[in-house]
Design goal:
The chain is mostly helical and about 425 residues long. It has 19 helices and two strands. α1 packs across α6, α5 packs across α14 and α8 runs parallel beside α17. The N and C termini lie far apart (about 45 Å).
Length: about 425
């Protein structure tokens, strides 16, 4: 399994992400880069509940790894890895737009809510190209990968990353964490949306403020820091570290992490959240998806990188200790404690969002409500177990599920490229 993961995560998946992402970016004429004001205007004019779905999608991406993943990239590849993150993000924006656009076009309205995502557009979009039976088979395979990813990357990895760093016994933390999560997820998408629409902006704002205080205090060093990033970006070690770091979300492939995309662009998971929006404007919702990537990678990942590089503390033993010690240098124990709390809350937001992704994927395969309840019970049990268990095998399973899911989704996006690109409204 390790060999398969090394091939998929180290070569196949990054190559497909860049090539197919660049294809869509060219098809879209880089409108999100060349016309940012028009994109922003489109988003503001067509809210219609879109920002709530954006909060849910961000909850799924802004996990522990989103902060710690940058630290891992810098430790592995140096300062230049940040430039490769930025370059990768430009390609990721086009992928996010394409999959959200397709999810909006193929969603269904059932039980008073919209349901959609990759399984829906894979099945309906490819039925004429590949035949109904094979298209449905592929959509179910993707849904199974999504369920596995929900239980591993979105569950085990999240709680395991934070359970051992708090001054409380892991099992006690796991039980408390699980009880609170169960109260939220049993309320369905409405309760999840209500919580994340408040929690995510507060967490992101707090983290941004802490980062900006450090950056402004060292503002005179920023030009030389940016120069170092660009100069260091063009050695092979930095380039490799950058792509690995960009692919790290809540689980880090080396040390604390395993590879998933920092903003899940191309994975096919977050379109599920966007499809639940009450908005009926596919283009505007796709633009929100672009905004999701911008907030996740260009803003938050960059701020984290600047703080770490400005503190010159890159010799810390683990990515998490690197982040915490960087803030502690400027703010003392208050800084490290605050960021630690933010990591726990980010992990919580990711867990409840990933439960929704897994439950929706399961509901696509079977409409039996009992299976959703059983999945909820298993999800909660896994949370408790994950707070104390060793993670080696789960990292492998998680890597394999997310890699296969992403590769399958990227191939399907390319096969659906005419619908995903040629129907783009002019920005």
């Amino acid at each position: 399994m390790e060999l398969i993961n090394s091939v998929l995560c180290g070569a196949v998946m990054p190559l497909l992400l860049v090539v197919i992402g660049l294809y869509f970016a060219i098809k879209y004429k880089f409108f999100y880069v060349l016309h940012p004001l028009k994109l922003t205007k489109t988003v503001i004019k067509n809210q219609d509940g879109g920002f709530k779905s954006l909060s849910v999608a961000l909850a799924g991406t802004l996990g522990v790894g989103n902060i710690v993943g940058v630290a891992s990239a810098i430790q592995m590849g140096g300062a230049g890895s940040i430039l490769w993150m930025w370059i990768s993000a430009v390609c990721a924006m086009s992928l996010k737009y394409a999959e959200v656009f397709l999810a909006m076009n193929h969603r269904h309205f059932e039980d008073g809510n919209f349901h959609g995502g990759a399984p829906y557009y894979i099945n309906e979009g490819l039925s004429k190209k590949l035949g109904r039976g094979f298209a449905y088979f592929l959509s179910c395979i993707f849904a199974i990968f999504c369920v596995i990813n929900s239980l591993t990357t979105g569950n085990l990895v999240q709680i395991n990353s934070v359970s051992g760093i708090l001054p409380i016994k892991p099992i006690a933390f796991g039980i408390i964490f699980t009880v609170i999560a169960a109260i939220v997820i049993w309320g369905g998408i409405k309760r999840i949306t209500k919580l994340t629409s408040v929690l995510i902006p507060v967490l992101a704002f707090t983290y941004v403020v802490l980062c900006l205080i450090i950056i402004f205090d060292e503002i005179e060093r920023m030009p030389s820091l940016l120069k170092m990033i660009f100069e260091d970006a063009f050695n092979l070690k930095s380039a490799t570290g950058g792509f690995c770091g960009y692919g790290i979300v809540a689980c880090l492939r080396y040390g604390v992490s395993r590879g998933v995309l920092s903003n899940e662009a191309g994975c096919g998971t977050s379109p599920c959240a966007h499809a639940s929006s009450t908005s009926h404007n596919s283009h505007a919702q796709g633009c929100l998806g672009v905004l999701e990537v911008f907030i996740d990678t260009i803003v938050l990942c960059s701020l984290t990188a600047f703080v770490i590089l400005l503190t010159e503390n890159a010799r810390a033993k683990s990515p998490l200790s690197l982040v915490l010690s960087s803030f502690e240098i400027y703010f003392g124990k208050f800084g490290s404690s605050t960021v630690l709390i933010l990591c726990v809350l980010f992990a919580f937001a990711t867990v409840i969002c990933q439960f929704y992704y897994g439950a929706e994927a399961l509901s696509y395969i079977t409409k039996n409500g009992v299976t959703r309840v059983i999945f909820g019970l298993i999800f909660c049990l896994v949370l408790i177990v994950g707070s104390v268990m060793p993670m080696e095998m789960m990292w492998q399973i998680s890597d394999l599920a997310i890699a296969l899911m992403t590769v399958l989704n990227l191939i399907c996006l390319f096969l659906l490229r005419k619908e995903g690109a040629d129907t783009l409204r002019k920005p």
